[in-house]
Amino acid sequence: MTDANPLLADSLLPDFAAIRPDHVVPAMEQAIAAHRAAVAHATTQAGDDFDTVVLASERAEFDLARAWAPVGHLASVADTPALREAHAQGQAMMTAYLMEAGQNHDHYAAIEKVAARKDFPILSPDKKRAVDLALRGFRLAGVALEGEARQRFLDIGVELSDLSVKFSNAVLDATEAWSEHITDEDALAGVPDSDKAILAAYAREKGLPGWLVTLRQPSVQAIMLHAQDRALRARVYRANATRASDMAEDRSFDNGERIERIMALRHEAAAILDFSDSAAHSLETKMAQDAQEALSFLDDLAVRARPMAERELDEARQFAREHLGLDSLEAWDMPYVAETMRRILHGVDQEAMKPYFPLPCVLAGTEALIERLFDVRLRRRDDISLWHADALYYDLVDRDGTILAGVYLDLFARAGKRGGAWMDVCRSRFRDGNRFHLPVAFLTTNFAPPAGGRPSLLTHNDVVTLFHEFGHVLHHILSEIDLPSIGGISGVEWDAVELPSQFMENFAWDKATLIGLSGHVDTGEALPADLFDRLLAARQFQAGLALLRQVEFATFDLLLHRDYAPASGARVNETLAAVRSAVAVMQPPAWNRFAHAFSLIFAGGYAAGYYSYLWAELLSADAFDLFAQGDEGRGADFRREILAAGASRTAAENFRAFAGRSPEIEALLRSKGLLTA
Ligand SMILES: [Zn+2]
Fold it and tell me: Which of 355, 532, 592, 625 is 20 to 30 Å from 449 at the Cα level?
């Protein structure tokens, strides 16, 4: 190559405009080789001090991420056939290499030597923490094992990843295998036109006239929420709730034996690493101390939510009887009844609210909120190399004008951009001897672009999304930790990493904040208070029932993993039945086989971790409540003890440093309207 590869440039920011697809593979070849050489150098040196081994490893990681992060980002926001191809090649190289690096026994041994040195106890807490987390990562990956145990552990990993693919494929195949062809439109009475268009498209895919009801999510939603035909709802419910199970019409996708095998292997892997069970293994990297702490939290929630859930169920029964002529309320009636109640009693038209949230207003409001909370300002820059005309770049500056960090915003949907919203790391904060790298983040959303001479208009959901992702961004860019592996979101416990994002979300439900940032696109008028009140009531509609459902899934997941014993097997149905009789206010039919399609815990990363959703809500609601109590210094506390501290301490220590106590459950209940006052 004649010109310099921009992906390898040692610059503060990537030169996005200069990056071409043909830069990717050569850059990654070089970056991976450099990482391999740097780690080898760090582990074979005579020195076994922190800088020689650990700081050098952090530097190697930083350099590798610096080359790869812009590629991953571009593949998500500026897709072209050539880039997609280059990204896929780079991705394959990275996956293979990370596997190799993660199993590097010499690297592990070298870091262990650092930890064994006499001066280790007097290193700074951050350095010790980085060493501890690195060693833990290697141990959990089986690198510390010797001989047969090590081989067995690796074999289990391979078999589990194969099973996880087969589990999700069985769910997908079972989803595709069932359908019901409808030619009489009356059978779809109640289903909105937009949903019917989706069902018609499914029919066209198969060369059929009319509509095809399938088990794909939009179809299940459309029928369960809207179809007046009760028998149709019952058929869809049954087909959906027995997917990939022994209760399905077609049993060839049954995941039952796979679940048994997955649970047995997880238990064995945990035992090899000296854990009592696979829940303990999973919780090793989480904030909750052990399964019991998470289970107690869930039990407490269930007990507190139950009276409200029972009241909500009574109301639904009464509504179904009086307005829908249903004398009994079956599992396949519940979503339909709830949706009808929601529409009639709490109708909130997201479209009608959009004029109150023009993007420029919302952005200005967000900037003001961030300044008010954390005493930092976002300052727009126009001299930065970007990948698209829609993209923006901001410096984050301190009160005295010092630049602390940077953030890219790319907010509008367009062709070649992946859907959804996310935050990603561009650069980590890193103090490497005399060199200092500022943290930089990407914030990406898919809002409707400006049209008809008007700015982009956001729904309230969009505002919530923007605040959520800004929470992740702030966690990254307000880091004050010098080592990348324990700064910002890096190294933070799985069940605590959503604390800043959900914390920020709360402000989109805060009356003063939301009304304050609103401004009607034509009149400038603020969002009327009664519209806000309706929005809030809709949010809390059937919150008790929804909470109990989450508690049910989370408890099932924890008990299944904690109580597994080789002699008795996984006991999926027994465990689910026991949890339901303890938690649920409405018992699903005995043939419901929800677990057989629960890919998040059997094929995804949520094993003994589903409770994390509720746990993070607990933390964020509690933290937000401390703000709502009006103490002025709270923003500075949150910034210092949680955002700036990252993973330099445990999440539990961060929370206690911020709140002065451990998390308490009342704020979560209050946010769901389950507790008055
Ligand atoms: Zn998030």
Answer: 532
User: For the residues 145-155, what does the mean pLDDT come to?
Assistant: 95
Distance (Å, whole) CA 72 – CA 221: 32
Among residues 46, 258, 49, 109, the alpha carbon closest in space to that of 173 is found at 258
What is the extent of the structural domain holding 207?
178-243
* 113 and 182 belong to one structural domain: no
Q: Is residue 264 part of a domain?
A: no
Considering the domain boundaries, does residue 156 fall inside one?
no
- Cα 505 to middle of ligand 1, angstroms: 10
At 155-214, the pLDDT tens digits run 999 999 999 999 999 999 999 999 999 999 999 999 999 999 999 999 999 999 999 999
Query: How many Cα atoms within 13 Å fall on the side-chain side of residue 22?
Result: 4
Ligand 1 centre to CA of 146 (Å) is 38
**Residue where one domain finishes, among candidates 502, 525, 548:** 525
Residue 580 lies in a domain: no
pLDDT at 1: 47
- Residues ≥6 apart with Cβ < 8 Å to 592: 241, 242, 331
Q: Distance between CA atoms of 72 and 88, rounded to whole angstroms?
A: 10
Using a CB cutoff of 5 Å, list residues around ligand 1, an ion: 501
Q: How many domains does the chain have?
A: 3
C-alpha of residue 115 to centroid of ligand 1, in Å: 34
615-656 pLDDT, tens per residue?
Answer: 999 999 999 999 888 767 899 999 999 999 999 999 999 999
Write down which residue in 202, 222, 243 finishes a domain.
243
SS3 363: helix
CA of 501 to the centre of ligand 1 (A): 6
- Clarify whether 469 is annotated catalytic: yes
What's the gap in Å between 469 CA and the centre of ligand 1? 6
Give the domain CATH number at 67.
1.20.1050.40
Cα–Cα distance for residue pair 599/170, rounded to 1 Å: 10
Catalytic residue among 61, 312, 367, 469: 469
Res. 425: pLDDT tops 60: yes
Three-state SS for 416? coil
Global pTM value: 0.92
Do residues 488 and 425 lie in contact, with contact meaning Cβ atoms separated by under 8 Å? yes
